[in-house]
Design goal:
CATH superfamily: YVTN repeat-like/Quinoprotein amine dehydrogenase
Strand order of the largest sheet: 3-2-1-30
Structural class: mainly beta
Radius of gyration: 19 Å
CATH topology: Methylamine Dehydrogenase, Chain H
Mean pLDDT: 94
Organism: Streptomyces luteosporeus
Helix content: under 10%
Number of domains: 1
Shape: globular
Strand content: over 45%
Protein name: YncE family protein
Distance between the termini: 30 Å
Largest sheet: 4 strands, antiparallel
CATH class: Mainly Beta
Number of strands: 30
Length: 349
């Protein structure tokens, strides 16, 4: 008899951002009960949980809107206690702005935050000391909009995907310098393999206004040693989020649209969660989710996937062994947009 995928999750929590509602909601991972919510500076985007200090980090990128259509960039990074569900501190990164992607090095106590360019500096990555919660410096990525950021398991190399720039920026985290650029046709989400040998990058950039000019969508497989694209995992539609589970399952969120005379961008169709085996690169399956999947995370055991969909403001909870949807959470929002950043928070020891 197959084990209940929810068994043993009592005390674990799923945190979900409501981008338009400017909140972080907390759900019981065993039974999906809403435990409470924290109001944060508008407009929150991504989450990252630090298990060492039991802090939940939240970026606030824009006053309203999204990457290429916003009312101004914000500068805040918020630290939240997920157990008491209270804000510990709001860190102002000014003059840096548009913080978005987050990557954590627990060994060195470093949090990396991608930030957008300004008139006097290119986009880059701000380095935060997780003990003092203060910036230690920044690393230039030589691109206007480094939106997603990931590091290798050893904490020595970082990768920034750039929506409009035709390359992935590779940075040396110890020296704090840009080392190389890997050619891809604009890029979105990414993930680094557990051994650090491969990087999986969603490309091209999801610019929906000129779909005829885009290259074929898929996941570019980058060999870290040679800093080159060695393969492409094809997808039917453009991909934004990319996530690698602890079991080595590569999860990607495909955004599906169809032409609509009343809208320049088109009409949203249900999105798709697609899974690949990272070792064999075999396509394992696919599943329909909500509208516009934007963030993916998984449970520490790699059994469950969580897919937030910003237009429908839902989170799909997926059993990765049977590849079926167990539940769909409705995330409260005020206007648009809806569900965005996710973090799985194991119970305190």
């Amino acid at each position: 008899m197959q084990q209940n995928p929810r068994a043993g999750r009592e005390g674990d929590v799923l945190a979900v951002i409501s981008q338009g509602g400017a909140t972080v909601s907390f759900f019981d991972a065993a039974d999906d009960r809403l435990l409470g919510a924290v109001e944060v500076p508008a407009e929150p985007h991504e989450l990252c949980f630090d298990p060492t200090r039991r802090l939940l980090w939240c970026t606030t990128a824009y006053r309203s809107g999204y990457y290429h259509a916003n009312s101004g960039r914000r500068t805040e990074l918020t630290a939240i206690d997920p157990d008491t569900r209270r804000i510990v501190e709001v860190v102002d990164l000014a003059p840096e702005h548009g913080p978005h992607g987050l990557a954590l090095d627990t060994t060195r106590g470093r949090l990396y935050v991608s930030v957008e360019s300004s008139a006097d500096r290119p986009g880059g990555v701000v380095v935060i000391d997780t003990e003092t919660r203060r910036p230690l410096g920044r690393i230039d990525t030589d691109a206007p909009g480094p939106h997603w950021f990931a590091i290798d398991p050893e904490g020595r190399t970082g990768y920034a995907t750039n929506k409009e720039a035709p390359f992935v920026s590779v940075v040396d985290l110890e020296k704090g310098t840009l080392t190389t650029k890997i050619e891809v046709p604009g890029s979105e989400g990414l993930a680094v393999s557990a051994d650090g040998h491969q990087v999986y990058v969603a490309a091209p950039y999801a610019g929906f206004r000129d779909p005829g000019k885009r290259s074929a969508p898929g996941i570019r497989v980058i060999d870290a040693a040679t800093a080159s694209v060695v393969d492409t995992l094809p997808t039917d539609d453009v991909v934004l989020p990319v996530h690698l589970t602890s079991r080595g399952t590569l999860l990607v969120g495909e955004v599906r649209m169809e032409p609509d005379p009343s809208s320049e961008l088109g009409r949203h169709l249900p999105g798709r969660l697609t899974a690949f085996a990272s070792d064999t690169r075999e396509r394992l399956g696919e599943l329909e989710v909500g509208l516009f999947p934007l963030t993916i995370t998984s449970s520490p055991d790699g059994r469950l996937a969580y897919v937030s969909c910003v237009v429908s403001s839902t989170v799909s909870i997926v059993d990765l062994e049977t590849f079926r949807e167990l539940a769909r959470l409705d995330i409260p929002r005020t206007g648009e947009p809806g569900a965005h950043g996710l973090a799985y928070i194991p119970r305190a020891a």
